[in-house]
Amino acid sequence: MLKFLTWRFGRALLTTFAVLAAVFMGARFTGNPVEVMFPDGLTPEVERALIQQYGLDKSLPEQFMIYLRELTRGNLGISHREKRPVVEMYAEDVGATLKLACCAFILSIILGVPLGMVAALKRRTGIARFVMAVAFFGYAIPHFIIAITLILIFSFHLHWLPSTGSQTVWHYILPTITLAAHRMASIARYTRSSLLDVLSQDFMRTARAKGLRERVVIFKHALRNALIPVVTILGLQIAGLINGSIIVETVFAWPGIGRLFVGSVMKRDFPVLQFGVICFAGIVVLVNFLVDILYVVIDPRIRTEK
Amino acid sequence: MKIIDRFGKNSKRDLISSPPEGTTSLLLPGEAITRISFWHRIKTAPLSIKLCMVVILLLAIAAIFAPYVAPYQPDKTSILARNAPPFWLKGGKPGHLLGTDQLGRDVLSRCIFALRVSVGIALVGVIIGSVIGVTLGIVSGLLGGLADRTIMMLVDFQLSIPFLLIVLVGIAIFGTSIPVLIALVGLAYWETYARLSRGQVLSVREDPFIEASIALGATNWRLAIRHVLPNIASPIIVLLTLNFPAVLLLESSLSFLGIGVQPPTASLGRMVGEGRDYMISAWWLVISPATFIVLVTLCMQLVGDWLRDVIDVRLD
């Protein structure tokens, strides 16, 4: 177990390092930083002085070390556009993103797992086919089309729900559904196939043969085993959730970091963009590591491994 | 005539050990037989799959022959016929089947040309991604050792970073032009091809015919091109079919956000994005291109799922 976790931890560190290095190199590709900061041009003397001040005349590895040092101090640069620290900008917006993402994640689990179970237990019935058809649509239709369709129906046609902003509870409904649709569909699909696998195992027959009630058989014997692979999928869902957030926040004008990030791409505000990448990649790496730990907790086979 | 499983793992060896009845001989290359079996597969496919194939075929024809199929030039404006709804609604103009936009451009014609752009980008993108991925996968599987570990580390890295991030950074650095967009969406999903082809190489490598060709002095290069590639072709085709809608959606999403295909070129995602501003008064500007996107992706996904089941590929 310890070996497994150390290995995973090492991998998480390595990935983080690779992301930082990639972002650093990416920043170099954008051209001369001094020209980016002062697009109107400078006299050669001032430019030379600035290059010296920012340490741009040092070698690349040296610059990378400075970059890492400043990173640990929380100094991640100042937005070209807004002239304030990017950390501050992200700190303002991260709450809205987390709230929305958590709502969507919870909704997708509390709908996805039972739907997948129904599809597996009532296999070959109309209900199961219907559930899988819905899951298929949720999976194959892109976020922005779901969003636009929901807005057209519920905001413009029925006037039930607001289409943009995040002030009240009502504002949460459409973005949450949009963001949850994909996750729900894939969780349902995974739960179904995993449960079907377990249901055909020998210990299921044993459990029934010894006279256990069907509810105990399904929930204690089948579901607990079936959910192990589903948990690993949850980790991968986070990457999808971030992809989704970026688009959903833009469509619904949600004041979160996804929208901030897309805005920085359009305005080519590199410090903001850079911190966005570090942020998102950090979340993914962290969550994947947490999933690894969770995996150890729920699967005793790994726990007892030497 | 007996149907031979073209895609089955052991098809080659079965042919050699026992020529099935009705086929002439094992001296003939398998082409004549396989073609029949492929047609047979399509003929015995469920109705929904056949329907999807017809839709894909029609859309492909429309995209290829766009200038002949579209009733109008995509950029031709007509001030008198602005914001006309589709023909079945009140105020619709019979000449404009799906209505017109705020500049009086015909929505159907724009959709057809946009389909051409979106499908074209996705097609080139998938080809780039599969070539890179398959090459790396085969190299990784055949050489093993350091090359294998490096490539698999890259795959791990790719899996743990949301691809949209990489694309957005790429756009911020290199700007929004169609070649950049194609290159970026082309890189998407390369790791799926790499993992699949590596796995296939590892399993094919144990087959006696590989051993035989190594014994005959075949180089790695020859092994890869002549022996491994033909054997892993069918799962790769399945993966291509399944990745195509995903790449198309990536491009549409970017164009929808306004950081993909730039005006005046129309792409389906871009049309949905532009139509958003007129959604209250002219919903067809959004719904028409959205329907095209959904049609293409749903049909491709269904056909891909079906192919995967028929060919029996495990993709995980």
Quantity of strands of chain A, as a count: 0
Beta fraction of chain B: under 5%
Tell me about the largest β-sheet of chain A.
Answer: none
What is the rounded distance between the termini of chain B? 35 Å
Q: How much of the polypeptide of chain A forms β-strand, as a percent range?
A: under 5%
Number of helices of chain B: 13
Rounded to the nearest angstrom, the radius of gyration of chain A is 24 Å
What is the string of SSEs of chain B from the N terminus onward?
Answer: HHHHHHHHHHHHH
Low-confidence stretches of chain A: none
Anisotropy-based shape of chain B: elongated
Largest interface: A-B, 46 and 39 residues
Portion in helices of chain A:
over 70%
* Assembly category: heterodimer
Helix and strand element order of chain A: HHHHHHHHHHHHH
Features:
heterodimer, A: 306 residues, mainly alpha, flat, B: 316 residues
Write the layout of secondary structure elements.
The complex is a heterodimer of chains A (306) and B (316).
Chain A: H1 2-29, H2 33-37, H3 44-53, H4 60-72, H5 86-121, H6 126-140, H7 143-157, H8 170-199, H9 202-209, H10 214-251, H11 257-267, H12 270-298, H13 300-303
Chain B: H1 11-17, H2 31-43, H3 47-64, H4 66-69, H5 107-143, H6 145-160, H7 163-174, H8 178-187, H9 190-204, H10 208-215, H11 220-257, H12 268-275, H13 284-311
Helix pairs in contact in B: 3-5, 3-13, 5-6, 5-8, 5-9, 5-11, 5-13, 6-9, 7-8, 9-11, 11-12, 11-13, 12-13
